[in-house]
């Protein structure tokens, strides 16, 4: 008996029913919907197509809603892509102002970043290929200075990852709860939570899914 489950992400290149049918026939057990991309209407249409494709093939497929989570992002870059070189310094501005950045200075989407980090903390850009180390934190000016340990190309609005727990960073942002309700309304079977930092993050989401709490309910 095969115990391994095959999870495949449904993206723009695989949203047509014929492609979905071939994926199901090839052994896809779970279809993942990445809620970091696409519109709500597109996800609803994808679920409808998946149910149709699974019915035609005659094989059940679970649908997984992958919530974006509290992923930090850098702002726009002047030339869209910059090359960060080892040994050079970079300043993140976290005051909420989104200004075009460069290899010396970039904006970040989370204003609480300067209060949450300490010197020597490690950060990653470009899906982990670029490693940065915090050298100085200036909460008064909402700035974080880092030195580049492993360089590489960085593009506008890429994700910035902070390994380890960051207490002031919510695991489930309010926007994700709204997305969760949308997933429930279109009949997803499972929910994936990104960037989990502590057991309580999972417990909080389970309470919402099981109907014991509703952060979007009116007071």
List the helices and strands and how they pair.
Elements: E1 7-9, H1 17-25, E2 30-34, H2 40-57, E3 62-66, E4 72-73, E5 81-84, E6 89-93, E7 105-107, H3 113-116, E8 122-125, E9 130-138, E10 143-150, E11 152-155, E12 159-161, H4 174-186, E13 190-192, H5 199-209
Parallel strand pairs: 1-2, 2-3, 3-13, 6-7
Antiparallel strand pairs: 4-12, 5-11, 6-10, 8-9, 8-12, 9-10
Helix pairs in contact: 1-2, 2-4
Main traits of this protein?
219 residues; seven-stranded mixed β-sheet; M1 Pyruvate Kinase, Domain 3; 13 strands; alpha/beta; 5 helices; TIM Barrel; 2 domains
Protein described:
There is one protein chain. By secondary structure, the chain is of the alpha/beta class. It has two domains: 7-69 and 170-209, TIM Barrel (Alpha-Beta Barrel); 72-161, M1 Pyruvate Kinase, Domain 3 (Beta Barrel), CATH 2.40.33.10. It is 25% helix and 26% strand. It is built from five helices and 13 strands. It has helices spanning 17-25, 40-57, 113-116, 174-186, 199-209, and strands at residues 7-9, 30-34, 62-66, 72-73, 81-84, 89-93, 105-107, 122-125, 130-138, 143-150, 152-155, 159-161, 190-192. The chain has a seven-stranded mixed β-sheet. Strand 9 and strand 10 (143-150) form a beta hairpin. The longest helix has 18 residues, at 40-57. It is elongated and about 60 Å long. It starts with 6 loop residues before the first strand and ends in a 10-residue tail after the last helix. The mean pLDDT is 88.
């Amino acid at each position: 008996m095969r115990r391994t489950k095959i999870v495949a992400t449904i993206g723009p290149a695989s949203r047509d029913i014929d492609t979905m049918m071939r994926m199901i026939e090839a052994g896809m057990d779970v279809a993942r919907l990445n809620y970091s991309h696409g519109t709500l209407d597109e996800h609803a249409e994808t679920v409808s197509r998946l149910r149709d494709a699974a019915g035609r093939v005659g094989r059940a497929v679970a649908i997984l809603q992958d919530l974006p989570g509290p992923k930090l992002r850098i702002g726009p870059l002047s030339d869209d892509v910059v090359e960060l070189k080892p040994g050079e310094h970079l300043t993140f501005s976290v005051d909420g102002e989104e200004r075009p950045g460069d290899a010396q200075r970039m904006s970040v989407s989370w204003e609480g970043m300067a209060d949450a980090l300490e010197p020597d903390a490690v950060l990653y850009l470009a899906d982990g290929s670029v490693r940065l180390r915090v050298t100085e934190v200036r909460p008064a000016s909402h700035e974080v200075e880092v030195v580049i340990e492993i360089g590489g190309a960085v593009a506008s609005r890429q994700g910035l990852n902070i390994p380890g727990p960051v207490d002031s960073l919510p695991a489930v942002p309010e926007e994700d709860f709204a997305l969760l309700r949308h997933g429930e309304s279109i009949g997803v079977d499972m929910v994936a939570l990104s960037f989990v930092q502590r057991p309580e993050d999972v417990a909080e989401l389970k309470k919402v899914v099981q109907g014991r709490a509703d952060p979007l309910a009116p007071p």
